[in-house]
Amino acid sequence: MFVFVCAGCGAELTTPLSQVSLPVHARQQYGNGAQLPVLMEAGTFAVDPDPWGGPWRLWDEIDPVEAEARGIYAPVHALSDGTPGASVIAPGDIRGTRLIPEKRGGACCGLDGADGPNMACEACDLPVATRIDDCSLWQMVRLDSDVVHRVPVDGVHAAPLSWTELAEKGEKTPPFEPIATWGGRLGPNHYWSWSPRWEAAVGHALAHLLIASQGQSVKVPDGLAADVFQRALDALLPAGTVERRAGLAGPGQPSPDAGVDILLVPVHPQTGRTWTPAGPTAPAYLVPLPLGVWLWLVSPEPSLPVPASGRIAQDVLRDDPLPLLPHHLFQADRTTFHHTLVRLPAVRSPWVRTILENLTRSASAGHF
């Protein structure tokens, strides 16, 4: 457990927090006017290794050697020159700070952090954090690593859950959920949609699947996995090539079938480590998925609403409306896909660079 303190005066700025893995949807911008919830669970923090916000430099202003030193292996529009290593927490866990009114940024419904740190230490007025809660952004507070330090505190230091415990007790992430909006002419509203968490998770995994494909077509398991992955894979990769097979693997699951080249596996939500098979197994590319998404794929809830034919029997009384379904096919989060892909060294391969360069003007762009 840790508390975060101001480097200027030593004042405590947070409640005691335990470290977990940064969610893959941390940088997601979802929809238009959507009211996304808090990114981090109360009582936790995660470290973001990448900079956030200004100042920015366009790609043409950056030497490729410098970009690779920062873990960027393909062109991006611009790179942040902000300080890396911010600790990300839930807004409810911040203490001893005040908002800086003039640092509102260009937000329309809240704060977007575009003007840099917008929270100051109450004790010494040092800018220490950036609150983000604008529409279409996940709500969070980012503690600046230059001016905020973490200090260990006494308390119970629980060991991370084992993979067996996670498989049995882990919380599944449903693929559909209602999305709230900030409102418009008709006021606040909500609509039923694919989960933003799923769209970001699939965007992240899709970048790994593209690398794992080695330029060949990929077949994922039938069912929900095919619904969220197969269309994009078919659009990105050439048809008629030798097909590579992807399968689900992880704690409590049987060994994958022979001929499976790629494994979709869970990531530990506390340590951030990817599950790996035990014992001697054939080498396979491991594609990471958030635990909640992986759990639903390997064991979907039986009550998941699906289209059905026929009529309800006359002697069955129903007074509840049918659950709503998304009105469009699944689309992976493009920003997460691109953010992940350019940070994989294999993106330097000519065939991957060609896919990346053609993405904006190809038919596959419609799958993001």
The helicity comes to 10-25%
Assembly status: single chain
Give, in spatial order, the strands making up the sheet with the most strands.
Answer: 2-3-6-10-9-8-7
The total beta strand count reads: 17
Distance between the termini: 39 Å
- Mean pLDDT across every amino acid position: 88
Structure, explained:
The protein is of the alpha/beta class and about 375 residues long. Helix content is about 20%, strand content about 20%. It has helices at about 65-70, 165-170, 195-215, 225-235, 290-300, 335-340, 350-360, and strands spanning about 1-5, 20, 45-50, 55-60, 80, 85-90, 95-100, 120, 125-130, 140-145, 150, 175-180, 190-195, 220, 245-250, 260-265, 285-290. Helix 3 (about 195-215) crosses helix 4 and helix 3 (about 195-215) packs parallel to helix 6 (about 335-340). The protein is globular and about 65 Å long. The model has no long low-confidence stretch (mean pLDDT about 90).
Helix/strand layout:
Blueprint: E1 2-6, E2 18-19, E3 44-48, E4 56-58, H1 64-69, E5 78-80, E6 86-89, E7 97-99, E8 119-121, E9 127-132, E10 140-143, E11 148-152, H2 163-169, E12 176-181, E13 189-194, H3 196-213, E14 218-219, H4 224-236, E15 244-248, E16 260-267, E17 285-290, H5 291-298, H6 334-341, H7 350-358
Parallel strand pairs: 2-3, 14-15, 15-16, 16-17
Antiparallel strand pairs: 1-11, 3-6, 4-5, 6-10, 7-8, 8-9, 9-10, 12-13
Helix pairs in contact: 3-4, 3-6
